[in-house]
Amino acid sequence: MIKLYGHELSGNCHKVRLFLSLLNLEYEWLKVDLMKGEHKSPEFLSLNSFGQVPVLVDGDTTVVDAQAILVYLARCYGGDQWLPLDAVSLSQIVRWLSTTAGEVRQGPESARLYYLFNATNINIDRISISIELPRKQNLFLRNLINI
Ligand SMILES: N[C@@H](CCC(=O)N[C@@H](CS)C(=O)NCC(=O)O)C(=O)O
Prior knowledge:
Glutaredoxin; binds glutathione
């Protein structure tokens, strides 16, 4: 059975869980407690030397990184429906995978970390400007993450 290492508060893990459910795939959920630093343990680092979740293990195959996992699952289990290979479709899919790891991460995810998890190393003003939100950037971000 597929194993997914992750944490329930991780947006990157959520993407993978959502797609597994859309594909009706059963999997074993293995919680990696980020708060306790389990993602930096030698055992976990042997799965992903970056020390990050999500990590998916499918038989002999280990895939790290949410976007890579989505592509893997789409190719293995989704037929052509989720990942058509013609040049235009594929480029559009990569564009949005890239956006989730870029703009979405720089915006909503950083706001969530800043406001909900007190990640004070994040410069929230700079992030708001860098993703070019038009007005009242912080208010927009706060509304987006519902606080
Ligand atoms: N590029 C990776 C990033 C994964 C990532 O940043 N995961 C976070 C949780 S959402 C994590 O494990 N953070 C712990 C750390 O970086 O030390 C992906 O898209 O999956």
